[in-house]
Records
---
Amino acid sequence: MNKIAIVILNWNGRQYLERFLPSVVMYSTYPHVEIVVIDNASTDTSLEFLSTTYPTITRVVLDKNYGFTGGYNKGVQHIDADYAVFLNSDVEVTANWLDKPIEHLHTHPNTVAVQPKILSFENRAMFEFAGASGGYIDFLGYPFCRGRIISEIEQDNGQYNKPIPIFWASGACLFVRLQEFIQYGGFDDFFFAHMEEIDFCWRMKSKGRDVFCIPESVVYHVGGGTLTKENPHKTYLNFRNNLLLIYKNMLPKQALLVFFIRFFLDYLAAIMMLLQGKPNDAKAVYRARKDFARHKKAFSAVRLLNMQENVVAQHSEMYTGSILVDFYIRRKRRFSELSIARLFQ
């Protein structure tokens, strides 16, 4: 029987552990399951709460805050399991949430990562921003979801209940083959947080592996617990990491055109932020592009290795259109309205 580790990363999140661990404990009755909390050197009373209230939960205590990427990368070195479920601390799970994703991994050896359907904790009829019912990416490197395009979030009416291959699976609830996750470098530590799961999935898909959404499994995600949507540092990480994501994984000839277009689009986004009264976000975009240019050379060897190991250059789950043009000009607000949706009906 395969061993499963439900791995929750915590940093000063006692309020989330108190609120959401009960559902994890109650509904994680699958055989051979271990719940593990990796603590990123919290300074609140998280560890005291765990030892008192949940003494049987395994704790891996790190010496400092390594972020989302480093926290998981270092923590999983102490875990012995076949499958790991990276679960955000602000996620409520539901009955039988483990069954179908684990069954899929067991019966589809080429699948390396899976996500469930992710709905909003605050409004349970709606998809949640960070993952919805599976992630995709357009040719300019902009991610979107089956159930969320740009800022438009759809209501869940069962329209995306079909299990399908996707481009990336959300880090809010990410099922992976643990040994392969470790073998292929896990998350990129430099990312710290945001888009690291897209980078991992892109690397795996380029190696010929599959990523799936299994909507029969449902979880509810709060979202924005550590960095809120309005946080300029989140803006910085999203823009910087998105550029690194493209540089590391996109074919060089295609990337040349994309970076040319993105130069104008990124600064247009910064101007819009200024006009909206968000000067700190506009500065974050400028700093992100500056830091990307400064660090790009350090990733040239990784990029070369990725290109050499690629066995799949073109992905059907990569949208050949522009999600910005579709959203702002063609006024398409739903995933089902995009041409890529027809490939996965």
---
Amino acid sequence: MVKTSVVILNWNGKRLLEQFLPSVVEHSLSDECRVVVADNDSSDESVAFLKTIYPNLPLIILDKNYGFADGYNKALQQEESEYVILLNSDVETTPGWLQPLISFMDSHPEVAAVQPKIRSYREKNRFEYAGAAGGFIDRYGYPFCRGRILEVVEEDKGQYDTPIPLFWATGACLCIRKKDFTEAGGLDARFFAHMEEIDLCWRLNARGRKVMCVPASVVYHVGGASLSKDNPRKVYLNFRNNLLMLHKNLPQSGYHSTFMIRYFFDLLACLHLLLRGDFKSAHAVIKAHTDFLKMRSSYHPLRLENLRKTSVKHIPVQYRKSILLSYYLRGKKTYDSIFRTGRMLTQSESSE
């Protein structure tokens, strides 16, 4: 059994495999690491390509498209490595990318998961939108990154080269202990795609495990390879899954007030989309809220389980203010500028 499995989930991504798999194989394969491709029932020539060009790579063929979340759940069930790395098919790895992640995990048993520093493949001096140098959320569930606040993506000038605790690590390149992944329940299959890694990391943090960024490791991510950022389907999944995530994980204290303010913010978002003529995305937001209300009761057992297993009442790395108000009203558009004026929970507060 190898120590680490790098698992790439593929769906109709032959072009991406042709472009990016060579770097992964070159920079990852060793006596202690194997590269695995799990295919989500592709209808293109992905499987034929893999069998022809990479006949020695392990290939997991799933019987249908399970989406990102359950596709990885089913693939990782077949892996016995100590560490598993969920790696998007549109990620270019760099020489030596793997060792800092594994070394950090080896020397920090309290850490369940880590991510590298993620730069944009198209603008390699800038951070990548969906991962950057690590993820956080505000008190209303809106995600942001160290290196990307809403639409503002920073240039990487070495300002975030220190390893720090995170609220969430990106699913584009997530290195996690297989034991922690399994014990936390894996990714939420009903999410299908989007927000599933944040939900998983919330559970890990709430149960006393840590999530970190290790910037000594660097990869480049294309992003939006499956759905563009403004695609109505992506808008729908992001809003619906974010609401489900809040319902599953919010402490009972402040639950109702958080949702009331969140509904108000989402109403403003919907009105903004309507005013700019993006009727499909506005409809996606409305449908997300409608479907959330339909699904909410079915998630009640999971909410009770999460609350029962919570050992950290207030997660120290959750931003206690509103990222939207900090951005739009206070003009704070970088991670550093926000945390010169805002703050996260302290360790003493987290135990209250």
---
Amino acid sequence: MPHDHAHADDAHDHGHDHGHERAAPGTQQAGGQRHAHDHDGHGHAHGPHLHGAGASERKLFWALWLTAGFMLAETAGGIISGSLALLADAAHMLTDAAALAMAFAAVRAARRPATLAMSYGHHRWQVLAAFVNGLGLLALALWILVEAGLRLWQPVDVQGRMVVVVAVLGLLVNLAAFAVLSGGEQNLNVRGALAHVIGDLLGSVAALLAGGLIWWRGWMAADPLLSALVALLMVRSGLAIARQSAHVLLEGAPDGLDERSIATALEAEIAAVASIHHVHAWSLSDDRPIVTLHATLRDDGGRDAVLQAIQRVLQERFGITHSTIQIEETACAGSGAVCR
């Protein structure tokens, strides 16, 4: 993880036993330093996360079956009618089904207990699934744009009436999947799956409009043009999801959490703290922020009280329930160039 001093005790598994907890918070270290870990509230603070994980799992399960079930019917309709809009939407539903299956598997993996080899647990699977889903949206959008260009160059006859019927059914299925996923707590993994469903919903609308125009006016170009429009909207969603998940995977600071804001808040609210430095903020997933920092005190008294005060401010001001704090008498005492 992104901090220079090497102590393996940064690896926390909430609610599980770890070898690094053999030293109690505040235990004296070499050079007058103390390393402490914020376990306060861990016994209850992660109850909502577990509940949210169960809710996410149920939403993804039902959305998966709705999407996969209709994808086969839409594929047949697209082949029979010759509609790119339907085939593009069916291909999107195929990637949706794969994305939802991956997101569902990631939620289940995140519930697995931590191990010695995976001391932080398996929460990052959800972020990785979101990243792959974002890339999948971009790849699918590129395929639709290329195919739309080819069909504008060489038009294909499309059965407008069949396109309308299949698109209406697909629209209803996608609305049901959207309703399932959009309710309740959202995390990056669910938002990634929801982006796929929204893109598929737009694909059904585009197919419906294209089929209607072809049925009514015989305008075959409506099919590739509306498909290309949906593909451009998919590019926007794919880029957003890929960028957000990559930020987490690259140990980027969560929104609102940076060295200056954390140091300023702690130095302003805790009189015994002379300075806060060597701050690193990142997250296991988009809703599990982690912070490590060094705190230099104005005197040698009340270290445990200061530690608790730092933990309280981190939790109340920034929602951080997982932190590693090094208490020092002087800045970087005994650590030399490591802290710099």
---
Amino acid sequence: MKNILGQSPQITHLLRTLPMIAASEASVLIYGETGTGKELLAKALHAESRRGDKRLVTINCAALPLEGIEADLFGRANTSGEIEYRGRLLAAEGSTVFFDEVDALPLSVQAKVLRFLEAGECQLQGSHKLHVADVRILAATSADLQQEVAAGHFRADLFYRLQVVPITMPSLRECSDDISLLLRHYSRQFAGDNAVVRYSKTIERCLLTYAWPGNVRELKNFCQRMALLYPGKGLVEEDLPPEMLPQVAANNHAFTLPPTGIDLAQVELDLIEQALDLAAGNRSRAARLLGISRDTLLYRMQKYSL
């Protein structure tokens, strides 16, 4: 579990429950936006399981061949039932298979995958004989699988069989308390023999309030880029990508007062509520979005009975 970094409540809870989940044989369905570390979690679950001495078999469902997909997954046998080609699922005997982007698994093979999940059985092309393998299944998706089921793109029975244990990898927006920790870790990692990139309070504030749509993967790539371009330098705003800089109105006013005036208390209340929504209820992140301390935010929340 050492490769999963974080001290936020979401990550702490995840790390606390992972050993119990890893020790079981239950199927696990990992949800999460792109870049949140779903494959990293799958690797951790496999490594901590009784199967950890064997290689994790990863199958990217979005990259499966359109032709010959059954033979690729299950294999091929002759009419006597003798295996001529061992597919990836049979070859994973005694190990774990990780179906990445499982929502892209073609409907044409979902019934066979379901049967394999339920009994470890599969019927190879060219033979009516059933073959059995001892394999644990993990899967991951960034899609809403229930919506895919409703749309007829994914089998409901396979969906429920996959998500015996559902786990959601939180977005970086939800774990904003971990951003500083991750910045320091990856900056040191990519510095190599060079001095580590330095972040001023102004720069760190920009990075803490940035939305990170690519999540941890985007942050990691950012740290690698900064280490290559600015080794040992104290970063300034000009070094950051434009999208990471705070947006300022053309007239240099963050807010333009309308001629009719405003209700200042209502504006303050609206902004606090918006910040809490954007921060998914995380008060520390909401305070950073508003440019105030957490204590000040708590005081104003109490003032408005929030």
